[in-house]
Design a protein that fits this description.
This protein has helices at about 5-25, 30-40, 70-75, 105-110, 125-140, 145-155, 160-170, 200-225, 235-245, 250-260, 265-275, 280-290; strands spanning about 45-50, 55, 85-90, 95-100, 115-125, 175, 195. By secondary structure, it is of the alpha/beta class. The strands form two sheets. It has a five-stranded mixed sheet with strand order 1-5-3-4-2. The protein has a two-stranded parallel sheet with strand order 6-7.
Length: about 300
């Protein structure tokens, strides 16, 4: 495996291997034996088969309700590269096959007229065991955070991600390193000019386009130079809300007025008002920005 990597990457892999080995050694003998036993349990090893859709069943006792929107998303953007094998239980007593993970893919395949699909088949004792597996699959599976997704989109040249990246760069900001994402929500990593709220950038871009995102970031840069916490999700969305209310407002003039105010105080005022009056905090912060800007 490491023979295909660059020397620096080999060092990184070896460091990881040493780290994982050290963590493994920290476990007591009983825990290691338990894990080793699970690895050696042959009946848990999957068998990959092509099964006909008509032979696949759903156990409603533990399955979640179908999201029609999710099914249609799979149908409209169908891609075999994203259509992984269904996790299917082979009930030893009845011999029937139940879909534990992949219900929405199953429905999408039915809509598309697909007759059979690849399945990852494992023997189970019945619905009780499957329900435990279902909970583990749906809760322990770690999704990519928005910063990691954004970085991946840049790699394959997603037009939206590329344009957002350009806007951020033009305003002399940078997007937070995905590996550091989530270190602290409010302060976007605690470093001036670094944006961790990637999801908010994407939302503003989709709703208001390049110009809308440009003036939000320009205002924050001119007013506060991107200091903490002016690049938080709440502030970005509140600033966008300000321009929704006042589409003709000029960023330079808005920034001049806002620059006279403490951004911490504006955010705190909005949060406190929103909490006390049942108003969404972003909307309340927008109110505070509106007053401060004299609009």
């Amino acid at each position: 495996m490491t023979a295909l990597l660059q020397p620096s990457e080999v060092d990184s892999v070896l460091e990881d291997e040493h780290y994982f080995k050290a963590k493994w050694d920290e476990l007591d003998a009983r825990d290691r034996a338990k894990i080793a036993s699970a690895v050696e349990t042959t009946r848990k090893q999957p068998e990959f088969k092509r099964l006909k859709l008509r032979d696949l069943l759903i156990d409603e006792k533990y399955q979640r309700a179908v999201s029609r929107d999710r099914v249609l998303d799979i149908v409209y953007d169908f891609d075999w590269n994203l259509f992984g094998p269904l996790w299917v239980a082979d009930r030893r007593k009845s011999g029937n096959h139940y879909v534990v993970d992949g219900r929405h893919r199953l429905h999408a395949a039915t809509v598309l007229g697909i007759k059979d699909v690849w399945c990852e088949v494992r023997p189970t004792t019945g619905s009780d065991e499957e329900a435990r597996i279902f909970v583990a699959l749906t809760t322990k599976r770690r999704k990519m955070n928005s910063a990691q997704q954004f970085q991946a989109k840049l790699v394959y040249g997603d037009p939206e991600a590329v344009e957002i990246s350009k806007v951020v760069g033009r305003q002399h900001f940078e997007i937070q390193d995905p590996d550091l994402f989530g270190a602290t929500r409010l302060t976007s990593g605690g470093k001036t000019g670094v944006i961790g709220a990637v999801g908010s950038l994407e939302r503003i871009y989709r709703e208001h386009g390049r110009k809308g995102l440009e003036r939000v970031l320009a205002t924050i840069r001119l007013a506060w130079d991107g200091v903490v916490p002016t690049l938080s999700s709440q502030m970005l969305r509140a600033m966008s809300g300000l321009y929704e209310r006042h589409p003709d407002a000029e960023p330079t003039m808005v920034a001049k007025k806002l620059g006279e105010k403490d951004p911490w105080a504006l955010i705190e005022r909005g949060q406190r008002f929103g909490h006390s009056n049942g108003v969404p905090q972003v909307e309340a912060i927008t109110d505070a920005l509106e007053v401060a800007a004299g609009l």
